[in-house]
Amino acid sequence: MVQSYSKNANHNMRRPVVSENIVHFMRTRQKQNEAHLAKLEAFAHQENIPIIPHETVAYFRFLMQTIQPKNILEIGTAIGFSALLMAENAPQAKITTIDRNEEMIGFAKENFEKYDTRNQIQLLEGDAVDLLGGLKETYDFVFMDSAKSKYIVFLPEILNHLTVGGVIIMDDIFQGGDVARPILEVRRGQRTIYKGLQRLFDATLTHPDLTTGLVPLGDGLLMIRKNTENIVL
Ligand SMILES: C[S@@+](CC[C@H](N)C(=O)[O-])C[C@H]1O[C@@H](n2cnc3c(N)ncnc32)[C@H](O)[C@@H]1O
Predict the structure, then answer these.
(1) Cα–ligand 1 centroid distance for 126 (angstroms)
(2) Looking at residue 62, which CATH number applies to its domain?
(3) By alpha-carbon position, which residue is closest to atom 13 of ligand 1?
(4) Has residue 156 been placed in a domain?
(5) Cα-flanking dihedrals φ and ψ of residue 72, to 5°?
């Protein structure tokens, strides 16, 4: 039994932001995972470890095959499922992925050893707060799938490491629909995340030098394209 995640870990995934029958349709009618990705998906579901849901998997396959990024940064590795998905669908890409949870790092290492057959993935162990400033490279695709209240904190450093034309995707930004409600209707324990996400939306959605898109897949994706070199948030 995996220690890291409680039964509430997927709270918002049980509050879909589009109707249940559409979620079911997207999860069952789109091509299923195969081989190691199917195994890892089943393991994550069995152990209640949050990984991207199937509708996001299908979207990532499409995006990776279309954009073919060369240098990807991911914050939030967990067991390595999304990193291996990106590696499979962008075979030329180098992927740097960050996680701070020892138990997840253990699983991810094991999975990369077995399934990262092209040696595309490098795992950085530690808190993104400490590691982001030390990154030396630039990236053309960044996937942020970690603590949501921190997205706004990480964003300036991420933008510094993003090429012009590069894309950031942030996962789980709708809080099961809470972001569209007044704060007093949001559970007290969720309000720090709510405030962090509102700051993120304020800073990005109408920014003149960013192109953004909100996509209602899973608990929502915020997509950001960097349009000029120096972005002041
Ligand atoms: C939702 S899971 C990632 C799932 C993975 N992207 C997938 O779809 O297969 C979130 C992960 O982010 C990690 N995390 C959260 N905040 C972090 C931080 N500040 N620095 C590094 N890792 C972090 C957690 O330890 C957890 O393993």
Answers:
(1) 11
(2) 3.40.50.150
(3) 76
(4) yes
(5) -110, 140
